[in-house]
Design goal:
Layout: H1 5-12, H2 18-29, H3 31-34, H4 39-45, H5 50-59, H6 65-76, H7 82-93, H8 98-116, H9 119-131, E1 135-139, H10 143-157, E2 161-163, H11 169-175, E3 184-188, H12 195-206, E4 210-215, E5 228-231, E6 235-237, E7 240-242, H13 244-260, H14 262-278
Parallel strand pairs: 1-2, 1-3, 3-4, 4-5
Antiparallel strand pairs: 6-7
Amino acid sequence: MHNNLLADIESRIPEFSKSQRYLADFIINHYEKASFMTAAKLGAAVNVSESTVVRFAIEMGFEGYPEMQKALQNYSKNRLTTLQRLDIASDRLAGENLIKNVLTQDMDRIRTTLENISEESFNRAVDKIVLADKIYIFGAMSSDILSRFLHNYLSLAFENVIYVSPINSSGILKSLIRIGEKDVMISLSFPRYSKNTITATAYAKKQGADIIAITDSMTSPLAEYADELLLAKSDMVSFADSLVAPLSLINALLVAVGMRCRPQLDTTLVALENLWAENEAFKKDDE
């Protein structure tokens, strides 16, 4: 149901009341704004009551407006351009308490991630990382930042970690040419989902590798390839993506892996500390 919410709404227009038609027209033409409006604000935008908006949602088969709003957000999140994100964020975050609003929303994203994460899937992901012959890590666009972070720290525990650079389609697949059944691929993608990430993950899955997908929802295109699905809440903050919750999840993954691999990790860290000291890598307190 509601695989294409806007098409569903448009097909129902002939049977709507006059007020509902106003609502339908606004949602179809301004779904990117409507998806982040409260019922009261949406009603005010088309000069109808808040209760009319709630009844409209129920008429569309939802339990209430919040459920319809969530469906609208799911519809729009992979369609919004960067400029549209900036416009919406300006409306949502306007006011004197901008820093408080942004940080509060990030805390909510971490809380939502904590409530929805599967501990069983998380633990299995740790097992697969520890036991893998090779660990491939790939994320494009803003997810590349997460990939680099994860690669940097996993490389301290293992020698077999391969960062797949999101250069171009042929280069990505060339990096994965030797991936096989004893390997793990950690794929990261958040709206707007990268086609290269989906293609690379599908290839790795076909080659028999275990797929650990770090993404935002069960409806993510990575979900169908995932052996272990780790969900983290991500959302837009102006023209930038909020990666706070995904990064927090990755931190938890690194801590768990580190606890499982203490002997080799300890050896690497001791050697690194000695090397840093010899080369005076860090500023001393008395300098």
